[in-house]
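Hi V.,

Quick status before I head out on leave. The structure for the redesign project is tokenized and pasted below; the design run finished overnight.
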């Protein structure tokens, strides 16, 4: 993962030090596909580019009024999708933040190999460089309504165009870093959408104190989104939109995690010479511990892993998580 860290440094510098740290993720590059066009499909989406030549990884880019540019999605199909005729559960998998982050991040990291032979569709959409899987309070660069794009447009589009179980027990959501927060947020805010939720090095508390800063993750979301996503606008507003913070904060939505499979990973020993990883993962660890304590007291079960290392995707734990997701969801 070390090859991705220089670009994370540049993002952190642009966002102003610690304030951007929690938005960082793993690296990615843009894929290529042939141009195509289609009429609005009824979900407010219009396909402007598509690639369906790869037997497993299909690619689409959309025009949507929710986003001021054309976001894309990778749809990773099971090995036997084209021959089996079966219906499959779906994992929505979210990338982290950073100027090198997009829908192809997990393809670069090895998602094809990790899912080989697995009976599940994996949907990996754009989520913005620092979109925080939210509709921002303010934007100076046009619409960046990632939450509306994912929940109101992309999910129904996937269900309409692929053989999926379009129901609670047919969907999981997971993510890394900023994407892990997005997964926790969506699973609580849209309770009936996802039966399993996973946060790989994703912060789990908006209002908690990190490095002596109360509400640190809200500050980081605002600073990073202002720097590289919203042209000075912010996700949560200045002063904060308190209702939005309450609605998005996993620690204030505990009952929404009942009857779900819940999986979390955090690193415990980032390299002391790598200040960037230290700030990311120390904050993740503190917020996940706060969240886990609240879940314990509420009697809500979860699986957690604290493992050595810093802020990066751990393939072994991702595959462990994937097996648990498949076990929890409806079977293909």
């Amino acid at each position: 993962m070390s090859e991705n860290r220089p670009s994370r440094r540049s993002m952190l510098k642009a966002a102003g030090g610690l304030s951007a740290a929690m938005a960082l993720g793993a690296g990615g590059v843009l894929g290529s596909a042939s141009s195509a066009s289609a009429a609005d499909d009824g979900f407010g989406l219009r396909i402007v580019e598509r690639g369906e030549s790869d037997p497993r990884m299909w690619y689409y880019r959309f025009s949507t009024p929710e986003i001021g540019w054309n976001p894309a999605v990778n749809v990773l199909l099971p090995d036997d999708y084209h021959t089996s005729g079966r219906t499959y559960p779906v994992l929505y998998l979210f990338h982290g933040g950073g100027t090198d982050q997009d829908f192809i991040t997990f393809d670069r990291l090895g998602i094809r190999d990790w899912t080989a032979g697995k009976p599940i569709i994996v949907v990996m959409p754009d989520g913005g460089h620092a979109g925080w899987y939210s509709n921002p309070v303010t934007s100076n660069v046009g619409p960046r309504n990632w939450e509306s794009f994912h929940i109101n447009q992309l999910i129904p589009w996937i269900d309409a165009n692929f053989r999926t179980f379009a129901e609670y027990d047919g969907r999981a959501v997971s993510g890394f870093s900023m994407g892990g927060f997005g997964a926790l947020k969506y699973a609580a805010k849209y309770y009936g959408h996802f039966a399993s939720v996973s946060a790989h090095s994703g912060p789990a508390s908006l209002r908690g104190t990190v490095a002596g800063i109360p509400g640190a993750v809200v500050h980081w979301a605002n600073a990073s989104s202002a720097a590289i996503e919203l042209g000075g606008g912010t996700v949560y507003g200045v002063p904060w939109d308190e209702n939005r913070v309450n609605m998005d904060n996993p620690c204030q939505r505990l009952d929404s995690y009942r009857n779900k499979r819940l999986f979390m990973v955090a690193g415990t020993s980032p390299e002391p010479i790598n200040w960037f990883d230290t700030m990311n993962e120390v904050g993740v660890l503190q917020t996940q511990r706060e969240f886990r304590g609240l879940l314990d007291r509420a009697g809500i079960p979860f699986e957690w892993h604290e493992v050595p290392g810093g802020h990066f995707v751990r393939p072994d734990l991702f595959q462990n998580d994937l097996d648990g997701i498949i076990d929890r969801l409806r079977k293909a």
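Above is the designed sequence. Confidence is low (pLDDT under 50) at residues 1-37.

G. will cover questions while I'm gone.

Best,
W.
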